[in-house]
Design goal:
By secondary structure, the chain is an alpha/beta fold. It folds into 2 domains: about 230 residues, TIM Barrel; about 35 residues, no CATH class. Helix content is about 35%, strand content about 15%. It contains 11 helices and 8 strands. Strand 6, helix 9 and strand 7 form a beta-alpha-beta unit. Helix 6 runs parallel beside helix 8. The longest helix has 18 residues.
Length: about 280
């Protein structure tokens, strides 16, 4: 396991390399501390915090305060992976000035080393402005969750020829604007491969096929903590929900039966000091 800090140069250097980019999306110190023991390249504090931790139906209610708080919590748990933070809905769409201000908060207050925002050609000027300010940008095209209402739900994008063409052009625009990498979400594998071949920046897929330069999953989905949300693109590597339920039920049962706590898990007064508390 490497102890070296991952930088943008490490990420961009893996374009079309044999050693593909690994990324995880997580939102708290506990998982950050565990993930820091691995060789994952990128940790993304995604606005998926809204659906995984805060109980929202979509990512749209997530605020800048939410993102700053969770980004700073994750920052305190990692030392090696590159830390990227999502820009939440309406934190960058209103104006370039507000985008710069909010992205700056994620770096200054949250400790992020880059930000991620959704959109293609319509985000060109914003990405360019952030890059000029020294704020690295990761793009995101395809199924963009902040556009869930426009798409009529979380639906695969780019199945039709014209839709695929638009996504490819959006990805090219994101690169030309100055993004250092791009997330491809919820698109046919053929479109993911075409974009990866056309761009000189790394592509990171989530439901975009095996030909991207890297992959990302939300840690709750990977570990079986996503509940009934089980999209096709997720591979579940563990079933921690079942393990957690079994442990919690065992705790409840032992407390009810008086089995826990025991003398071994209880404190005792020092000999000769009983009079001082009676």
């Amino acid at each position: 396991m490497s102890s070296n800090k991952i930088t943008i140069l490490d990420i961009t250097g893996k374009k079309k390399g044999e050693n593909r980019i690994t990324a995880l999306s997580l939102h708290d110190y506990s998982w950050a501390r565990i993930v820091d023991k691995t060789d994952v390249d990128i940790v993304l504090v995604g606005d998926s915090v809204g659906t995984t931790l805060l109980g929202y139906e979509t990512t749209l209610p997530v605020t800048m305060e939410d993102m700053v708080r969770h980004t700073s919590a994750v920052k305190r748990g990692i030392s090696k992976a590159m830390l990227v933070a999502d820009m939440p809905f309406m934190s960058y769409q209103i104006s370039i000035e507000s985008a710069i201000e909010n992205a700056g908060r994620l770096l200054k207050e949250g400790g992020a080393e880059a930000v991620k925002l959704e959109g293609g050609e319509e985000m060109y000027d914003t990405i360019e402005a952030l890059d000029e300010m020294g704020i690295p940008v990761m793009g995101h095209v395809g199924l963009t969750p902040q556009s869930v209402h426009k798409f009529g739900g979380y639906r695969v994008q780019g199945k039709k020829r014209l839709e695929a063409k638009d996504i490819i052009e959006s990805a090219i625009a994101v690169e030309e604007a100055g993004a250092f990498a791009i997330v491809l979400e919820g698109i046919p594998m053929e479109v993911g491969k075409e974009i990866t071949n056309r761009l000189s920046i790394p592509t990171i897929g989530i439901g975009a096929g095996p030909d991207c330069d890297g992959q990302i999953l939300v840690i709750q989905d990977l570990l079986g903590l996503g509940g009934d949300f089980k999209p096709k693109f997720v591979k579940q590597y563990a079933d921690l929900e079942s393990i957690a339920l079994e442990a919690i039920e065992s705790y409840i049962d032992e407390v009810k039966k008086g089995v826990f706590p025991t003398e071994e898990t209880s404190y005792k007064i020092e000999q000769g000091h009983l009079r001082s508390v009676t």
